[in-house]
Amino acid sequence: MPSAVEFRDVCRFFGTVRAVDRVSMEIAEGEFFAMLGPSGSGKTTCLRLIAGFEQPTHGEVRIFGEGMGGVPPYRRAVNTVFQDYALFPHLNVIDNVAYGLMIAGRGRQERRREAEAALDLVKLPGYGGRKPGELSGGQRQRVALARALVMKPRVLLLDEPLGALDLKLREQMQEELKALQRKVGITFVFVTHDQGEALSMADRIAVFNEGRIEQVGTPEEVYNRPARPFVADFVGSSNVFPPEVTHAVAGRRAWASLRPEAIRIVGQGRPARVVATAFLGTATRLHLEMAGRDVTALLPRGAVVPEPGETIEIGWGDSDLHLMEGP
Amino acid sequence: MAEAAAPLPQPAAGPRDGPLSRLSDALWRRPRVLLVLLLLPPILWLGVIYLGALFALLAQSFFSIDEFSGVIVREPTLKTYGELLTPANLDIIRRTVLTAALVTAAAAVVAFPIAYFAARYARGRWKAVFYLGIMLPLWSSYLVKVYSWKLILAKEGILTWALDSVGLLWLLEAWLALPGVGGNSLSTSPTGTFLVFLYVWLPFMILPIQASLERVPVSMLEASGDLGARPDQTFRHVILPLAMPGVIAGSIFTFSLTLGDYIIPQIVGTSARFIGLAVYQHQGTAGNIPLAAAFAVVPIVIMGLYLWWAKRQGAFDAL
């Protein structure tokens, strides 16, 4: 069976800027796939390549095995939830949701019924008569979701859909989106710069950096076994040691990653000076200096927090130091 | 570590000397006073001089003129409005409204692609070229432009010459032979009047449409395409409704400016009268201020009806 989405050596250049640079990946049907990276890493351009708003400079995008070269957005079986939601301000909610059905030439009754079902699905029943301008950010997001889902796409594309929401709403929507995806069973491709969002929602994550994919894997793989220093640093702000430091602390000459939460204060270990501390609520972050290098540690709640300026002894388990390829 | 210097003693509030700072302090504490001071001059100007003069004029339309002495009878009557309904005056109104409507429709059609290009594609230097191209004609004298057009459209003018040299003069002659729109030459035909109106008012249509299109984010057009709409469907269902407030704003300009103009029909065209010209002649040479005022009410009523209709059609839904 072909993949829902497949990138074959895809490049997208804007002038001299290599927005997407030789990306190959496969997204399986029914998967919740996250494209994670900092801004300008090419993740949004990849999403736009799937939607058809961009054409590859080189390579091929396939959707369910079909090459998408020269296929305009309006002929693709994918739908997008836009970052700014892009709701039509002159139409009320029900007409926004039914827009695609209206274009497809469905009857008025059917349009209304399906749009209302879609609004029920995103838990926004009875809002059909309002204008987008009268809704809150979270409600607009649900309308945008309903407008895409009502088309029964084979792949749903989401461009930073939670970016504009406040923290509480974002956490709630993360769970709802995940539950929704299980319910409708279609492939979700999700762009985000928030590693926590990607880890908590996705089945698999592709980590983007400077137009390339650094690693593709499950959240556990990406977090516990980052393939390269960039992944270790971007996902979970790991301590990244270059080969000479790894050699000094573990006797191996390779790049290594050490998670802040793996570092513990021990009776006898490596001396480190406390530079600063920050209370985070669930934990306390220590900014340490160990043998001339900055190291970050995370103390669980309830632990005794040392004062800045103090020198402490730190240690970690052998398996916590994860070796990886160079950048 | 060196001992930190003791902080300098600072007063809780900064110095407050000088009458200007005292005045600004006082106004800061009473923002309403500031608001009144700022709004009073424009409200006086708008309310008394601008609207006052307009209402004084409208009041005149309910007076009448004594036919023998030519003296204005200052008693409220609808007699003057009755005079508007004579065949000659109705003819003036019909001609003016028809021309204004045609000019407005043509201006919208011509302006839309220009405005669309400027809003969507023109960037940096091209945007500057666009603004200059639109605004430059507005900086030059209106009379100079109208007389230039008279020369362009004249029988010996460049347009006739150009059409002749490409062998299309027969087309122009066939058009001029048509009753109602034709005439001796373009510069003495209703077509000429129409063309000059279209040229002179076009910037007033382009700029509001461009402004309304600027506010349509690209993602909205992409969303339409994403939901299966072909570009022509996106135009009909998204771009046009969102640009409608701009089109209406532009059409208010082109429509009302054509309704009130009295120069262009005198210089280019058949010298058949328009509302503006009728107002000009009645208040000037004929000394019939009431009838001039009644004529002046006609465009106001028409614009009111037009806006009411536009609102009902949902033209302002996207505002």
Please, could you describe this protein's structure?
The complex is a heterodimer of chains A (327) and B (319). With 327 residues, chain A is α+β, with helices and mostly antiparallel strands. Helices cover 28% and strands 33% of the residues of chain A. Chain A has two domains: 224 residues, 3-Layer(aba) Sandwich (Rossmann fold); 88 residues, Nucleic acid-binding proteins (OB fold (Dihydrolipoamide Acetyltransferase, E2P)), CATH 2.40.50. Chain A has a six-stranded mixed beta sheet with strand order 6-7-8-3-9-10, sandwiched between helices. In chain A, strand 14 and strand 15 form a beta hairpin. In chain A, helix 4 packs across helix 5. Chain B has 319 residues and is mainly α. Chain B is 71% helix and 1% strand. In chain B, strand 1 and strand 2 form a beta hairpin. In chain B, helix 2 packs across helix 14. The longest helix of chain B has 34 residues. The radius of gyration of chain B is 28 Å and the shape is extended. The model of chain B has no long low-confidence stretch (mean pLDDT 88). At the A-B interface, strand 6 and helix 3 of A face helix 10 and helix 11 of B.
Question: Which key phrases capture this entry?
Answer:
heterodimer; A: 327 residues; alpha+beta; Rossmann fold; OB fold (Dihydrolipoamide Acetyltransferase, E2P); 2 domains; 4-stranded antiparallel beta sheet; 10 helices; 17 strands; 28% helix; 33% strand; B: 319 residues; mainly alpha; 2 strands; 71% helix; 1% strand
Which structural class best describes the helix and strand composition of chain A? alpha+beta
Rounded to the nearest angstrom, the radius of gyration of chain B is 28 Å
Low-pLDDT runs of chain A = none
Q: Which descriptor suits the 3D outline of chain B?
A: extended
Number of domains of chain A: 2
Rg from Cα of chain A: 23 Å
CATH superfamily of the largest domain in chain A: P-loop containing nucleotide triphosphate hydrolases
Helix tally of chain B equals 14
Q: Which percent bin holds the helix content of chain B? A: over 70%
CATH class of the largest domain in chain A: Alpha Beta
- Between the first and last Cα atoms of chain B, what is the distance in angstroms? 63 Å
